[in-house]
Amino acid sequence: MPFEKALDQVVTVEQPICRHLLAKSMYLSGTRELPPGHNSAGHCWCNLTQDVRGPDSQLVQPRACNSNRTCYDPVV
Fold first, then answer.
1. Is the pLDDT of residue 57 over 80?
2. Using CA atoms, how far apart are residues 42 and 6, in angstroms rounded to an integer?
């Protein structure tokens, strides 16, 4: 069986991202925004905790870091 790689679904973020959300792709692109094509499997971390979990112990992801979380602070 040949090697096959399935690409993860692209995440579309509808609201401003949290200012504490960081991803390697941000450093590569040189912008604060997540570049087009950033997928949910991309490694993200919280600048407050320096971990993949935020201060509220939930996972850090572009779609999950929203206004429903107590630690959310929009970039705008």
1. yes
2. 14
Work out the average pLDDT over 36-55. 80
Q: What would the mean pLDDT of 5-18 be, rounded to a whole number?
A: 63
In whole angstroms, give the CA distance from residue 12 to residue 5.
Answer: 21
- Which are the contacts of 33, defined by CB distance < 8 A and separation ≥ 6? 17, 26
Grade residue 16 by pLDDT with cuts at 50, 70 and 90: confident
What are the structure tokens assigned to 62, written together? 């572009």
Helix and strand totals (H; E) in the chain: 1, 2
Residues 56, 48 contacting (CB under 8 angstroms): no
Q: Determine the Cα angle at 9 with ends 64 and 35, to 5°.
A: 70
In the DSSP assignment, the letter for residue 47 is T
At position 25, the amino acid (one-letter code) is: S
Please say whether the beta carbons of 21 and 60 come within 8 A.
Answer: yes
